[in-house]
Write a structure and sequence with these properties.
Elements lengths: L2 H4 L6 H16 L8 E5 L5 H4 L9 E5 L3 H10 L6 E4 L10 E7 L7 H14 E12 L4 H14 L7 H8 L25 H11 E9 L11 E8 L4
Parallel strand pairs: 1-2, 1-4, 2-3, 4-5
Antiparallel strand pairs: 5-7, 6-7
Length: about 240
């Protein structure tokens, strides 16, 4: 299944709205992008850059996506966006070359060691005064109950669609035995089991957390929102 069908073209209108809203929410947190080097780290089908790539002057965009299938989708999706380059190997990008990095809906899938690798690459790529916007889903509390109910209605019995696992996530004790891909033990397909509270602690060990915002209703905080963003900078930035 294509990335678009999994997200922005899902048959459920609420999910489609939330998927697009998370991109808009991330863009609202970005500084002025004119004249900046901007990286989408784990770009999927490139939908983020499609939202602004032709409207911001002198903005150089880099779309990094390690999955060949999704990268092909991104190239097709962004074929009319100027000044956009595509990358499948993050190590090909030069150090301190990015002013703004978006990393959206990536880290919730990764093992601790793979997450550490992403942190190290973001730190390497950020310019001295650069910032990164990390977006991940909220999968504990009331959001876990709402999302879990939706998943159980769709695919009851899957790891993220059993009453026990949904209940554990709802009470703030998400299951830790998420199934991983057979050919990639560092990647878990399920969102349920991810805990943004642990990610916040991990980010604080590597970066300065400048701001924390929930979406789509920021005033409510993490208690009834689907997404949370962390705006971060290098630890040694003053």
């Amino acid at each position: 299944m294509s990335y678009a069908n999994l997200t922005f073209q899902d048959k459920n209108p609420v999910k489609r709205w939330l998927q697009r809203q998370r991109l808009l929410g991330a863009l609202k947190l970005a500084p002025p992008l004119s004249g900046k080097n901007v990286l989408d780290f784990g770009a999927g089908n490139g939908e983020l850059f499609k939202n602004f790539g032709r409207s911001i002057p002198n903005c150089k965009l880099t779309c990094y996506e390690p999955d060949m299938r999704f990268l092909a989708e991104a190239k097709e999706n962004l074929n009319n966006v100027v000044d956009c380059v595509f990358c499948q190997n993050i190590k090909d990008l030069p150090s301190k070359s990015m002013d703004v990095i978006f990393c959206l809906e990536v880290l919730e899938h990764l093992s601790p060691s793979a997450t550490k690798d992403v942190f190290e690459q973001i730190d390497r790529l950020l310019s001295v005064r650069g910032i990164a916007i990390i977006g991940v889903p909220i999968e504990i509390g009331l959001p876990a109950l709402i999302k879990g109910s939706f998943r159980m209605a769709r695919s009851f019995g899957d790891f993220d669609a059993t009453p026990k696992n949904v209940l554990l996530a709802t009470i703030g004790m998400p299951p830790t035995n998420r199934p991983v891909k057979k050919n990639n033990p560092n990647y878990a397909s399920s969102h349920l089991g991810f805990d943004h509270r642990l990610l916040r602690v991990q980010l604080g060990n590597y970066f300065q957390i400048i701001r924390e915002v929930c979406d789509p209703f920021p005033i409510i905080g993490p208690y009834a929102n689907s997404e949370i963003y962390f705006v971060i900078s290098k630890l040694d930035f003053e």
